[in-house]
Write a sequence for this structure.
């Protein structure tokens, strides 16, 4: 019996080897390192589904360099250690020439040393910590706005919101802390006082303690930075505490429709900085592409709420595809060089990388578009300011 | 003053569910000498059961909670019967490995079935809070506190005043003698595990609607349950109850007045301090496990 089991196991391993061996010849692999489970599961799944749509679209048109592209999707479990492990697996075992990932700043930062080691580039689609492009890692190309760019974009309209003093509630990681710093600096420039800066753990579910502090504070505005699941809890708990402030969330991972569905009236009259506006596709930089993407998203039966996040995966894969095409081969170093020549219009806007970080080993950073939206009576509107 | 009162109210509301988690684990830990790694999974099972009954089957919210608790008891009995009974008498490492395996299996089954995206449970309670002078509390959390307290009292009553409770206590004190007195030890083990599991499922069913339901929600709950049990002393129900409330107050006041970034660390710092001075926990029994 044991012999038979051993035989079956080795047969299975051989068969698996044969399958991957055959695929390697026909496809160009792109590694996808996203949080499909854990604290950021909602966002990670949206981004991955957006990436799949882009890949299918490219394959339907005949693929790249005469080959189909194949996404090798790995779950980093919202955990930096796992992100580094699956990143290494993608580079070493799957031998992907380029990756998309890893959603959160702390997740991306954990993968970065591995990229230096194996010399494989990664397109960063969501992370916003300033550290990522300033670390001197020449394999990083980022299409999401770092919090400094987001703060700068918000700075253009901030005076019209008449904020006098703002408190911060941020997720206790590179993303949240970076946001509090960059937005705080921008506020001070505009004569807005910065009050409390409170943190919450990544998987914290009870933010009542922090919210009770804000209730006692004299600030008129509360800036909140975290992803949709924690935001849902914050709005519910703020309503339960009778906390009435001008809420503004940052980071683009709010999925406003999911907030409306799960937190109900608690999210009315809140404002959110987002990077894609599926409610008004005609206001996006490439309306035809936006409409096509939204239609495909709906056709696949995905939740409309996910669009403000899934566009990142779509834009990411399209930018990677453009780089592979320019490189002319699926080779990490060639793709890394080709990223500098990419110039396409994504759903968010123009994707063209500027050099950032220490000279000689710069990372790429594009300048994304930032929108302010407001939720009014359970509907998303673009505030007139 | 207002802020302090609000913090105290928040902690009180949270404490009852921590106590439930702690009692459930300490029963199993103390009586069966089993380090129950599936405790957190029974917690998330309770939450998913309520979500499933309400969202998919349209069952009334309150009925769904009751059914979830009963289902939790049955699942606990099944785990005991299928996994623990066959390895009874094995050393503590073997039992631990089996329970770790069961934990991983249960968590990944939930992930497979429900996916990783958080679920939200709808409740019949109004969103607007109840204003009590300076503080406001949500109706849902008051409901959680009341039901949690009732369950704690009921558990006490069960252990202290029923025949089965007496048998459980006897088994805990000396299971060889209890067996000689005609107590069905195997049955007691199954009942104890079912009771502990039911309490975990109850905590999940109550907190699921307050927070969000995810496959990994049990991990942090499990960690906290262990902390509470260690704090209160192994196998001590009063210790677990008080331990649960202490942890809630320390977390809430720590996050409010020291640093919100170290909310979870705060509870564990207290445990380290207590263990330094009272290595067997606050309320010690004569014997120790492991």
């Amino acid at each position: 019996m044991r012999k038979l089991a051993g035989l079956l196991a080795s047969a299975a391993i051989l068969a698996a080897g044969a399958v991957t061996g055959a695929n390697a010849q026909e496809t160009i692999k792109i590694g996808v390192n996203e949080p499909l489970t854990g604290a950021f599961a909602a966002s990670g799944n949206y981004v991955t589904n957006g990436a799949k749509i882009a890949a299918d679209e490219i394959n339907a048109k005949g693929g790249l360099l005469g080959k189909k592209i194949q996404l090798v999707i790995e779950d980093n479990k919202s955990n930096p250690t796992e992100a580094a492990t699956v990143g290494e697996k993608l580079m070493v075992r799957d031998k992907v020439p380029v990756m998309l990932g890893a959603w959160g700043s702390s997740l991306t930062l954990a993968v970065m040393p591995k990229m230096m080691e194996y010399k494989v580039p990664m397109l960063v689609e969501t992370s916003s910590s300033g550290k990522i492009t300033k670390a001197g890692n020449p394999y990083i190309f980022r299409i999401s706005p770092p919090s400094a760019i987001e703060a700068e974009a918000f700075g253009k309209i901030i005076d019209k919101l008449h904020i006098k003093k703002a408190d911060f509630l941020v997720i206790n990681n590179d993303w949240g802390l970076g946001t509090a710093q960059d937005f705080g600096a921008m506020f001070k420039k505009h004569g807005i006082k910065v009050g409390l800066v409170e943190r919450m753990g990544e998987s914290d579910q009870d933010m009542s303690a922090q919210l009770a502090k804000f209730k006692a504070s004299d600030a008129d505005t509360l800036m909140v930075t975290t992803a949709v699941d924690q935001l849902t809890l914050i709005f519910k708990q703020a309503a339960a505490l009778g906390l009435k402030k001008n809420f503004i969330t940052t980071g683009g991972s709010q999925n406003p429709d999911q907030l409306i569905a799960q937190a109900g009236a608690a999210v009315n009259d809140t404002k959110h900085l987002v990077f894609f506006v599926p409610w008004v596709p005609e206001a996006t930089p490439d309306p035809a592409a936006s409409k096509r993407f939204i239609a495909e998203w709906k056709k696949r039966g995905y939740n409309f709420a996910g669009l403000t996040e899934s566009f990142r995966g779509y834009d990411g894969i399209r930018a990677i595809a453009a780089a592979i095409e320019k490189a002319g081969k699926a080779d990490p170093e060639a793709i890394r060089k080709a990223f500098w020549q990419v110039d396409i219009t994504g759903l968010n806007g123009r994707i063209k990388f500027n050099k950032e970080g220490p000279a000689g080993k710069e990372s790429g950073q594009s300048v994304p578009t930032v929108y302010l939206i407001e939720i009014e009576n359970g509907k998303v509107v673009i505030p007139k300011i | 003053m207002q802020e302090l009162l609000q913090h105290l109210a928040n902690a009180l509301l949270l404490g009852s569910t921590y106590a439930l988690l702690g009692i459930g684990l300490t029963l199993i830990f103390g009586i069966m000498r089993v380090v129950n790694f599936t405790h957190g999974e029974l917690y998330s099972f309770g939450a998913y059961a309520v979500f499933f009954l309400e969202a998919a089957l349209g069952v009334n919210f309150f009925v769904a909670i009751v059914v979830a608790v009963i289902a939790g008891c049955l699942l606990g009995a099944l785990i005991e019967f299928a996994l623990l009974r066959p390895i009874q008498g094995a050393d503590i490492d073997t039992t631990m490995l089996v329970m770790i395996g069961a934990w991983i299996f249960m968590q990944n089954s939930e992930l497979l079935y429900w996916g990783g995206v958080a679920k939200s449970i709808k409740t019949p309670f109004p969103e607007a809070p109840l204003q009590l002078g300076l503080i406001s509390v949500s109706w849902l959390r008051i409901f959680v506190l009341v039901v949690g307290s009732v369950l704690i009292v009921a558990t006490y009553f069960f252990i202290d005043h029923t025949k089965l409770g007496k048998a459980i206590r006897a088994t805990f004190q000396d299971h060889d003698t209890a067996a000689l007195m005609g107590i069905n030890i195997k049955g007691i083990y199954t009942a104890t595990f079912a009771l502990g599991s039911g309490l975990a499922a109850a905590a999940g069913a109550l907190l699921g609607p307050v927070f969000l339901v995810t496959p990994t929600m049990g991990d942090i709950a499990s960690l906290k349950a262990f902390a509470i049990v260690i704090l209160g002393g192994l196998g001590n129900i009063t210790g677990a109850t008080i331990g649960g409330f202490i942890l809630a107050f320390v977390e809430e006041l720590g996050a409010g007045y020291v640093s919100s970034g170290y909310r979870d660390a705060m509870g564990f710092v207290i445990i380290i301090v207590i263990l330094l001075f009272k290595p067997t926990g606050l309320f010690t029994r004569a014997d120790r496990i492991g």
